[in-house]
Amino acid sequence: MMIPLPPAGGARGGQDTGLAIPPPTPLPQAGGGDIALYIHWPFCVSKCPYCDFNSHVRSGIDQDEWREALLADLAHEARLLPGRRLTSIFFGGGTPSLMEPATVEALIAAAQKHWPASDDVEITLEANPNSVEAERFADLASAGVNRLSLGLQSFDDSALAFLGRAHSAGEGLAALEVAQEHFGRVSFDLIYALPGDTETGWSAALRRALSLGTTHLSLYQLTIEPGTRFASLHQAGKLQPLDSDLAAALFELTGAMTSQVGLAAYEISNHAAPGAESRHNLTYWRYGDYAGIGPGAHGRRLGARTVRHRKPENFLSALARNGHGMVEEEKLSAREAADEALVMGLRLSEGIDAGALERRFGAPVIDWSRADRLAASGHLARSGTHIAVTPAGRLLLDRILAEVAA
Prior knowledge:
Layout: E1 34-41, H1 63-80, E2 85-93, H2 101-114, E3 117-127, H3 131-134, H4 137-143, E4 147-153, H5 157-162, H6 169-182, E5 185-192, H7 199-210, E6 216-221, H8 229-235, H9 244-260, E7 265-267, E8 270-272, H10 279-285, E9 290-293, E10 298-301, E11 304-308, H11 312-322, E12 326-331, H12 334-345, E13 352-353, H13 354-361, H14 368-376, E14 380-383, E15 386-389, H15 391-394, H16 397-404
Parallel strand pairs: 1-2, 1-9, 2-3, 3-4, 4-5, 5-6
Antiparallel strand pairs: 6-8, 7-8, 10-11, 11-12, 13-15, 14-15
């Protein structure tokens, strides 16, 4: 979809739009200061048909072997990043709630030994709401996890069956109640814009979600990702995505309803009360450094992009050979880093200070004439060199990024 642009006008440093946008956030600097840690647990009980994450089903998992492997991979990253302060740990997957609490505890302890932790260090673990996994919540909290991200995905059993989820709606709500007993901060995910969804149905589901007492929600539209079972069904004509205009209407409805109760979108798909945002993900979107360990994990540190082997067995083999599980470590050019920072930062409602990014990377970030045209059309808000995507622009973010990149 093309954005209708007004006639060109406004040079670099042109007039502000006059729209209210959040103040700039201090820009993290590569090569020093804070660090975030991402730990990938690649195993699942089953593979969901929409999921393109690095997840694998195995009949048996040697927890002791994987604990030692992840500790070794962590030690490699720590040797490269001395003198940092640890602000967050995120256990993602896969299904990290399948990890033994002892493994989680050992990794948290090792990370805080390698790097001094901030007083308010955020330690998040993704969990499925199966009753067996919910039984581990108390032990995971004792292990040091202080924030749980729960994959509810839907309150409707037929939708959960369509999504290939292994839990019922009742199990999900029960798990949420248990999570809220044991963790100070709880978020949960819902997927919407499924085939057959309506504004009436989604608004009812969203009202229910907003009544459950969490201060953070991740609300994702269903997308057909390459390589998934849903992609195969779509290619065969057996799965028809929701009409794009209706999906856009549901997105706008989501923004309006969450804002009304104080859980505004701070990122395209993430909504939080003030102060309840995911600190770990903010590091990622604000283009700070983070170490990524475990199969398939990505990282960004010391001006380089790192990628671990995706297949668990290949990861273990690489670790035995090299002392780490990396398959790729690529130094980013100033141009590449600036482009990545732009893409990440404009996902946030706070936007970016493009001038600060240009000073950091020594490379142009924004085509200012195009940015001014998008500000005039209401798709961007601008104050000096600080720009943010407006609610109207969020529906067209990919197109906006292509327009404004220098």
